[in-house]
Amino acid sequence: MIPLTPQTEPGFEIRGREYLVSSARMRAFSGGPFDMDNWPLVNIHTDMAHALSCGLKKRNASGTQWQGYILQMMLELFGTGWLNHGKIETKFIRLVNEGDTVRPWVRVTAREPVTGGLRFTFDIGCDNQRGETVLAGTASGILPKS
Amino acid sequence: MADLKPATDLVVGESYEPYSFRVTPELNEQYCYAEEDYHPRYRETTAEGPPMVHPALIMNMSNRTRSPSFYMPKGRSVLHAKDDIEFVAPAYVGKELFVTWTVCERYEKRSKQFMVIDCRVVDEDGREIIRRYSHNTQIRGDAA
């Protein structure tokens, strides 16, 4: 669990670990259930020929795959209570291709009292191995009164 | 396939065909592997309750590409540009989830056409799981 306390101040930043977006994990994420007869589904995430035919240079990962790294961080910050009230807004800035690495981060921008606790607001993002932003946005969650 | 309208041709107010699926332990594990997230909450009963559905599974399975009526001509695909999501309740492994998609806005930005999809996910007990607004555009190859 990442330590988020009522005393956590705006400016507090947490960088997550790096994730390698491998071919196997892309197919597991975007190929449909493993027990489908025609697994994996053919799409720009799973099939090179299809990706090329759509004008891409490589297979690229679904945005929801690395958006998931941010969701993991929010659950580490707030626990599963976040699934009852959490909000997230994300913009997908750049493509993430097979073999790229992605590192998520969150930074507290505001803390305000609300009914039942403190609402924390964050800037969020994911960077690739070149230090380029691939995802940017905001998120919020409520830290309940203990 | 010939009867289906390309996904990017739907107008405001039109909906894609709804989709439902049951979250088996195997499907949930598949997404835990894809996300490299092996927290016990996703595979066993914990102090937080019964095994929970990984949130990234819900996000991916609520992409409109999962709709039975989703169709794009060869050489064209959709690209996810933005998401605005509110989590309402956790989903639990073993439950059937129901997904609906309605086009709620279309706009042009930097000479590209965008579509906003109002997506809702509820479980078999009628519990709302997420409310999601996804902005999407399309890509196409030279041959399309």
Report on this structure.
The complex is a heterodimer of chains A (146) and B (144). Chain A has 146 residues and is of the alpha+beta class. In chain A, 21% of the residues lie in helices and 34% in strands. Chain A is built from three helices and six strands, in the order E-E-H-H-H-E-E-E-E. Chain A has helices at 23-30, 48-53, 63-78, and strands spanning 13-15, 19-20, 87-92, 101-114, 117-128, 133-144. In chain A, strands 1, 2, 3, 4, 5 and 6 form a six-stranded antiparallel beta sheet that branches. The longest helix of chain A is centred in the middle third of the chain and has 16 residues, at 63-78. The mean pLDDT of chain A is 95. Chain B has 144 residues and is mainly beta. Chain B has a domain at 7-22 and 61-143: Thiol Ester Dehydrase, Chain A (Roll), CATH 3.10.129. In chain B, 12% of the residues lie in helices and 41% in strands. Chain B contains two helices and five strands; from the N terminus they run βααββββ. Chain B has helices spanning 25-35, 55-61, and strands spanning 15-22, 76-87, 96-109, 112-123, 128-140. The model of chain B has no long low-confidence stretch (mean pLDDT 94). Chain A binds chain B through residues 19, 25-26, 28-30, 33-35, 43-44, 50, 52-56, 62-65, 67-69, 71-72, 75, 79-80, 82-92, and chain B through 24, 26-27, 30-31, 33-37, 39, 41, 48-49, 52, 54-56, 59-60, 63, 65, 74-77, 79-90, 139-144.
